[in-house]
Amino acid sequence: MLFWRYLNDNKVKIKYNIVMFEDKIKDEIQSSVSICFGEHIKTADIIIEKPSDKKFGDFSSNISFQLAGKLKKSPNDIAEKLVIDLIKTNNFEKVEAVSGFINFKLKKEKYFKVLEDILKNKESFAKNNVLKNKKIQVEFISANPTGPLTLANGRGGYSGDTLSNVLAFCGANVEREYYVNDGGNQVKILGESVLVSAGLLKKEDDIYRGEYIDKWVKDNKKEIEKLKEKPFEIGYLCAKYVMENYIKAEVKSMKIGFDNWYSEKSLYDRGLVEKALSFLDNKKLTYEKDDAKWLKTSEFGDDKDRVIVKTNGEYTYVMPDIAYHWEKFTDRKYNQVIDILGADHHGYTERMLAGVATLGYRDNLTYILTQMVRLVKNGKEFRMSKRKGVVVTIEDLFELIGGETSEASDVARFFFLSRSFNTHMDFDLDLAKERSEKNPVFYVKYAYARTYGILSKSNKNNSKPNLKLLTEDAEIELIDKLSELPALVQMIATTGDYPVHLLTSYAIEVAKKFHHFYDKCRVIDEENPELTNARLSLVSGTKIILGIVGKDLIGIDMPDKM
RNA sequence: GCGCCCGUAGCUCAGGGGAUAGAGCAGUAGCCUUCUAAGCUAUUGGUCGUAGGUUCGAAUCCUACCGGGCGCACCA
Distance (Å) from CA A443 to C1' B39? Predict the structure, then answer.
């Protein structure tokens, strides 16, 4: 009930939802309690929920349980007494007491207003302004430029992209950023790996291997020979190649658009690392010990202080990363930065949060950790052959899913997004490969294609639809489901852990309600143009909502035909 | 040893104080001279890891334990 608890707890008004009746219900309950029992209860203490089972009505209240102890009466007696008073208002078709709960059923015409709003406002139906004037950066993927993107990057990548979409829907000024680690030790290691591949260096451990390195070596023999004493420079060149030919291409095939590709090396080139360091020095947050320089992160929640300048004078990774975040807040002035990382970095996040706390921006930085992913095929973990390198790359994944890249990416996106970040995920290749109703992605896409099919088949009728004709359960339930989107979007953007996975569940639910409606209610009926017109409105509304959730938020293509 | 995450149907996962615990896949039985059957309907299947505690009420919160994953560098 996270969703409904949010609606009860939120301090911000939900822009539009059928739940706008919530406040009215609370007032009515308050007044009835006062009339029936002479007790005053604050509306803030009244909880309205939306029961999962429709037969319990549209809303329910557990107020009787809260009052039972105080009044020394059974919840059901209290509920029954309250119902008699509550039913006097005319908002509800039915108010009843069921095993202590009070259940409310809305009059049907309350739903028509929602559908009118969807048709009138289209995309903006789901938008709101709660993050207006907020400059938010979502940093994600940020994989080292030492090799192609992997499965884990896929999860983080799609999550970051979709979260950005949601934040933008709430009025935020969102920037997507990829931090290119082209300045650290891993670049030198990449350079050494190149030399190993070229036969100019003997080294067994701590090197990268893969076809992409061998290929680059083959095309750049001369250059490598010339720079063989400077592994960092070789690594830098190779990293550039990897960025351009692998990572950027993969990001593009994932249909993710970054606003910034931010270079780590540029931090050094612009002297920002020194600047950040002297800032910390001046604040007396550093000290010398054992010939190294330490940052007092333990004063900010870390379990011990961290070295930022090594004995040999080099920076540890902590220093440029702190400089990077410092720059985000002081120069670029983001109100909020959300970093998405794989769970194997969780030790790192604690350290960085402490590090950023020394700068005074602890509350402006949020880390999202996505748990591990493994591929499963025929019930067993799938592994790549040694020849291509042990890790599964994004390209491998798309190939395994099959079909066109764009479609494979949509499948991958939907699959990754349908699990909460905390779930250790098994990616079911057999289901992903399935191009049928079994695969939830196609289930949702098919619903959209159906709306298009019906609309294109119908004759345009410009007379104002009479929505009151939509009285079937299947119709009302569909509208009800459509009405939830605005609150869902807002909840995802403003709840601490950003549960974007709820979008895919929602898309499936809408598709399900729509398919059900399709089965129960014939839309185009020449004998009954008025009803046809009303139902076409509902189909249009569904198409709008599925379009928003699929295209604008989740970020998959929604085809007109399948 | 310490820290983070997970343990829910045969499988993959939602739900994270409320009413008989949900979905998809797998299984079973039906539905196409009618807007796309890539669909719909019905149905089988669960001691919510274990044991305590808090509560009118616990899958949900607390504690301990048992399983599994991942982290605990002057690597990044």
Answer: 9
